[in-house]
Amino acid sequence: MNSKAYRRxxxxxxxxxxxxxxxxxxxxxVREFRVFRIQRLRxxxxxxxxxxxxxxxxxxxxxxxxxxxxxxxxxxxxxxxTDVEITxxxxxxxxxxxxxxxxxxxxxxxxxFDGDVVRDQEGRYTAYLTTRPRGRPNEIDVSAAPVGGLxxxxxxxxxxxxxxxxxxxxxxxxD
Length: 175
Hints:
Blueprint: H1 3-49, E1 57-60, E2 70-78, E3 83-89, E4 93-101, E5 112-113, E6 124-130, E7 139-141, E8 147-157, H2 160-163, E9 168-172
Parallel strand pairs: 6-7
Antiparallel strand pairs: 1-2, 2-8, 3-6, 3-9, 4-5, 4-8
């Protein structure tokens, strides 16, 4: 091979190396843009439907993985500026859980279930969604996804009246 061919191969190799180095950045940039766009669209949709994060739980009656023997409550939360307090009664059921999800609908590492939730003598609980955990009972750390959705799942409830009672949701100061 002559020197011109070596130069061409060197230039081609350099360009391939640059492209390979840039691809991960381009991929993550596009992915983060999509997440930002999804968040914006979700916020616009919620506003158009009159749903404000941190203020209410609403009943979910359909969706992927929906089981008609379960009762599902959803809470949209935004813990960037405030914490969220959720109160309610855990009805007698085979299983109860409170799990937050990120933008990719993956569950966060911090959650509550009927085996570890602290409740009073009447079965009432108070849970906190926060990005600044302080060691309170029933605290769920959502710092991995400060904006997201939380599902309260009641599997095979024995008391349908208690299972169908909406949990209370309100924003509280970070302290």
